[in-house]
Amino acid sequence: MVRWEPGAAERLQKAALELFATRGFEQTTATEIAQSVGLTERTFFRHFSDKREVLFYGQHLLVQAFLAGVDTAPPGASPIEIVASALRSGASFFPDERRPYSRTRQSVIDQNPALKERERHKLAGLATTLADALRARGVDELAATLAAQAGVTVFGIAFAQWIREDEQRSLADIAAEVLRELLTLTARATASGRGPQ
Amino acid sequence: MVRWEPGAAERLQKAALELFATRGFEQTTATEIAQSVGLTERTFFRHFSDKREVLFYGQHLLVQAFLAGVDTAPPGASPIEIVASALRSGASFFPDERRPYSRTRQSVIDQNPALKERERHKLAGLATTLADALRARGVDELAATLAAQAGVTVFGIAFAQWIREDEQRSLADIAAEVLRELLTLTARATASGRGPQ
């Protein structure tokens, strides 16, 4: 009989991050994570397919936040405006009180190539899902792919800035600024008249 | 004594791709690849650190082609114009006669998650190197990262289009068109006045 442990996934995730950060990702086993919060390895694997996945728990909620932003963009919004709305909504998934957690989590990921790979995989998936949502709003194939990729690039850069030690601004504010910088950059290329041939 | 096999890496790469495409990546060993062109496993591992790497042989030349394009961009070129120059130069690495090879190679990569991961890793490395080169030209941190990421995104989308069965245009032409589409997209967001908040 399977006993349901309320909040088990969250407890396991918190414990895992602590152990990864102090002992190292490779040096920590799923059994140790489970035991540290009084759970069994079996419970661990009921929630997570592997040890890497525990760091990416809840990411479908981030994807949903992006998609909610696509939905709430006004009719007639351009692809980049829709992406801006998705970024605002996605950023709300990371309130300021989450910053210390995100910072520790990222330092664990950055130290492990397999985790970096998983992260790139997740971001690639986010870009694909976002592009699909843009297409579903009638944006054409190429524009949807480009706008979605641009959105994920902006998000990645903004996120890396948000977790810097001295950073105070919200993720939404940083993302908006990075997106504006992208628009400024591309406008400069167009305005020069030399542009890309 | 190590005997130098002229062109061994290229022969191994060609043989590997053929075996991967017909038998599958997982089902092919380094020994089989080596034996199929009359070489030893030892020779294989003198050239490639692992079986995955054989598909990415020569990628430093692609990176160099991008960097050459950064160097030849005129003084005063904007970041996106420098990236456009890098894309033209990078695209020259894929002449039309290479298309069938690239097509087969991509179908092998797309069928194997580990190879997809390695590919994402290589593209991430290209973006980092390109951003460094932009910074070395005096482009500021954020603009360099954004422009380099945009360049790699454009390259990835253009490449996927270039290897489609019915595609006739050169990679350079497709890349220029994808970049123009990105500029059009961002210009629309700026021009609407609503823009990203």
Automatic annotation (TrEMBL), chains A, B:
InterPro entries: DNA-bd_HTH_TetR-type_CS, Homeodomain-like_sf, HTH-type_TetR-like_transc_reg, HTH_TetR, MftR_C. Keywords: DNA-binding, Transcription, Transcription regulation. Residues 6-66 form the HTH tetR-type domain. This is TetR family transcriptional regulator. The keyword Transcription regulation applies. Residues 29-48 bind DNA. It holds the Pfam family TetR_N. The keyword Ligase does not apply.
